[in-house]
Each structure stands twice: as C-alpha cells, then as structure tokens.
C-alpha cells in the first residue's frame, strides 16, 4: 500500500510518500519546508503568515517529495467540472490554486492508495491548507482521504526502528505504555493499555514545554525557535563550567498529580533578567543552562512518577522537544533505572514532519479506525471537513 502524508499544522509544510507491506515501511519520498526563520521577527508562529506560506509552498513540497514518481503533461488533465470545484474549494488560497492548476493538474495520477492529512491539533488557518490540498487531490485523483491526529503521529513515529537507509519497522511497545508528548503546543502524558488506545493522565495547565523554551529564549534575547538555541548555549555553559546566577523553580515538580505548569518558569526568568540588568554572554549561557536543567528535571521527574504509579512497561517520547540532547539522555536514564525500554524518534523525525502522518495513516487503516461518524471504509472529504471543524 502506498500512502501520502500531509502536514501543515504549524510552521512546517511537509509531505511524505511511503510504501508499506504491513511489516516494514519504506520511505519513497520525504520533504519538509520550514518557515521558522520567517516567524523569527514575531517571536513565535504567526498564524496568518503560516497559512500564506503553506499555500505558497505546499505544491512545490509535494513535487519535491514525489519527484521520481510523477509524470508531467503539457496540458491539464482535469475536466471542466473538476476545474470548477477546485476553483471554489481553493478560492481562499489563491497561491495554492494557481500552483495547483499550473502543476498538479498536469501530473498523471501517481500510485497512491490513501492520503492522510493532519486535521489537528494545530493552528486552524494552517491546518486548512493541508486539508484543502488533500481534498483537491481527492477531486482530481479520487484517492480517499483520512484525517490524522498530529499527536498520534508524534507517538507512532517514535515507535519506528530503522532497518536500512530508507526502511523502518514499527516496534510494538510493552503495555501499559506511557507516551510523553513534548512539543511547541502540547505537553501531555498519555497512558496506553493497547495500541491505539490513549488516556491522557496529565497535561500542562498553561505553557507547553517547547513554548517555555521559546518564551524564555525570547526573554534572553534569543530568536525563535528558542529551544535549540537555549540547548546549545546550555551545552556550552556545561563544557566551560559556567554556573547559573541563581536557581530557577521546578514548577509542580512535587505535585501528586501528573500535570505540568511552565508559565511560572518564564516569569522567573523575566524577573531574574530584570534584576540583573545588563546580561553578559556568560550570564546568558548560565541562565540557559539552568532553564534547560529546570525543564528537563521537571519533565523527567513527572515521567518517573507516572511510570511508578501506573506500573508502566515502556516509555515512548514524541514531539519537537525530544530533539533536545539533555532530555533524551535524562529520559533514557530514567527508563534504564526503572528497567523499561524507551522509544525515541530519530532526531530529524522529532520536530514536525509528514512521515509521522503517513505512518499514522497506515496505522488508522490497519486498525480500521473510523474516526468520522459518517464514514464507512473510505473516508470522504466531507468527513475530513467535519472532523477538522469539530
Ligand atoms: O513538535 P514540534 O516540531 O511542533 C509542534 O507540534 O509544536 O515542536 C516544536 C518545538 C519548539 O518549541 C522548539 O523550540 C522545540 O520544539 N525544540 C526544542 C529543540 N528542538 C526543537 N526544544 C529544546 N531543545 C531542542 N533541541
Ligand atoms: Zn508537533
């Protein structure tokens, strides 16, 4: 089965094309176009700009991922009826419509059995671009579209085991399994007693972990996305033995529940920098080190508490923040101490990508999960819409 994955929930436009025989997954094409630099002046992702960029780039990202598999014609292959429907569908995304009509309608139908598209969670205007692109492909090629949950994608991509350069197998975790999701928009702990069942046992009450990295970085005058920048400064501070000016709080680290709260950490960094006044480079590195330590210690302690409380047999970690080296090594030790396996995504699959969406699409098909109320078997585009709106 050949699957196309589409991801546009935040500031990455991503397309992935995979083939699976039910046991292994071969990545036939994969392309990620990051807009992060464009959002830097805003200190975070600016939704209307994200939507515009997705509209501008999604066709090119598709063609890049699918390059060896597309045959182009000089003339359009769509009927007048299809053209009319596309014009209405993509009416609010003129750049996408133009690129679609100039390129996609001149491609022979590629060998794709199923299209999976992120329906949420994410920035609504950004999500619509991916959904409408999927619907447009459905109109011209009549390929069924499956709505995919972004967070499930983060979990499943962590279960991939590399077999060769472009081939993965999927490892079934030991149950009960704890998935720790750490991204720019979410911080959640999810307990699974079987594949595909998800029970959220704790989540952030305010900022997500990635958001905390990004916001504290901003306070320190570092550009968006702040996570990787804090991390490299912290690494330098450790290597050079630069100590932080003072200790920062570990919010909710001792609470009995499994919730998180990170907004207090951002405020603490703000007050600290205000008190210190002018901050030299070493002080900045020292604070970055302490921010990273505070976040990692809090997350690892909470995960450890959940492992003990629920008799967890495997730890799965997903989301952009698991690209962080200190968090990876600390959680690996946590799992080792508890004698359970840990499943981490490859670094380049940690931040948003479409491979995770394609894998989740296969998974949804395998489970015959029919998440839309009206859909039976193949999900129609109306159901995608329904799901996205709900
Ligand atoms: O999962 P993701 O790509 O997008 C969302 O779904 O939100 O996560 C992006 C987040 C950003 O907040 C970014 O700063 C953070 O992941 N991040 C990191 C690192 N790489 C990305 N945070 C800390 N250390 C990193 N190395
Ligand atoms: Zn994400």
Short key terms for the protein model shown above:
single chain, 390 residues, Nucleotidyltransferase, domain 5, seven-stranded mixed sheet, 13 helices, 12 strands, 18% strand, globular, disordered C terminus, binds 5'-O-[(R)-(carboxyoxy)(hydroxy)phosphoryl]adenosine, binds zinc ion
Integer average pLDDT: 93
CATH class group of the largest domain: Alpha Beta
Overall number of strands? 12
Label the overall shape: globular
What string, H for helix and E for strand, traces the elements in order?
Answer: EEEHHHHEHEHEEEEEHHHHEHEHH
- The name of the CATH superfamily of the largest domain reads ATPase, nucleotide binding domain
Bound small molecules, by name, code or SMILES, are: 5'-O-[(R)-(carboxyoxy)(hydroxy)phosphoryl]adenosine, zinc ion
- Straight-line N-to-C gap: 29 Å
Unreliable spans are 370-390
Helix content: 40-55%
The profile of the biggest β sheet is:
7 strands, mixed
The total tally of domains equals 2
- Do you know the CATH architecture of the largest domain? 2-Layer Sandwich
- The side-by-side strand order for the widest beta sheet comes to 5-4-1-2-3-7-6
Beta-strand content = 15-25%
> Do you know the CATH topology of the largest domain?
Nucleotidyltransferase, domain 5
**Which structural category fits the helices and strands?**
alpha/beta
């Amino acid at each position: 089965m050949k699957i196309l994955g589409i991801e546009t929930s935040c500031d990455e436009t991503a397309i992935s094309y995979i083939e699976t025989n039910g046991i292994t997954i071969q990545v036939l094409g994969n392309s990620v176009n990051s807009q992060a630099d464009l959002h830097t002046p805003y200190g975070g992702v600016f939704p209307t700009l994200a939507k515009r960029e997705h509209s501008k780039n999604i066709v090119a990202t598709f063609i890049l991922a699918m390059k060896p598999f597309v045959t182009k014609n000089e003339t359009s292959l769509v009927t007048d009826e299809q053209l009319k429907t596309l014009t209405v569908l993509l009416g609010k995304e003129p750049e996408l419509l133009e690129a679609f009509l100039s390129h996609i309608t001149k491609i022979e139908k590629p060998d794709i059995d199923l299209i999976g598209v992120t329906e949420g969670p994410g920035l609504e205007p950004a999500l619509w671009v991916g959904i409408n692109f999927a619907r447009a492909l459905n109109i011209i090629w009549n390929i069924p579209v499956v709505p995919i949950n972004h967070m499930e994608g983060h979990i499943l991509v962590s279960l991939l085991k590399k077999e060769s350069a472009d081939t993965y197998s999927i490892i079934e975790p030991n149950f009960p399994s704890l998935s720790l999701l750490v991204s720019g928009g979410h911080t959640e702990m999810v307990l699974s007693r079987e594949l595909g069942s998800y029970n959220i046992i704790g989540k952030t009450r305010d900022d997500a972990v990635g958001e905390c990295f990004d916001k504290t970085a901003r306070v320190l005058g570092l550009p968006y996305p702040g996570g990787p920048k804090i991390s490299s400064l912290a690494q330098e501070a450790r290597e050079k033995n630069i100590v932080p000016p003072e200790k920062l709080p570990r919010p909710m680290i001792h609470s009995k529940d499994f919730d998180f709260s990170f907004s207090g950490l951002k405020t603490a960094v703000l007050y600290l920098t205000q008190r210190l006044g002018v901050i030299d480079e070493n002080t900045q590195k020292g604070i970055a080190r302490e921010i990273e330590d505070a976040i990692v210690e809090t997350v690892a302690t909470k995960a450890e508490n959940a492992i003990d409380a629920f008799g967890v047999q495997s730890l799965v970690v997903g989301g952009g923040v698991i690209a962080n080296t200190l968090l990876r090594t600390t959680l690996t030790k946590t799992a080792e101490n508890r004698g359970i396996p840990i499943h981490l995504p490859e670094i380049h699959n940690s931040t948003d990508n479409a491979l995770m969406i394609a894998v989740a699409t296969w998974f949804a098909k395998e489970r015959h999960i029919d998440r839309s109320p009206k859909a039976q078997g193949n999900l129609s585009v109306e159901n995608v819409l329904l799901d996205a709106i709900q």
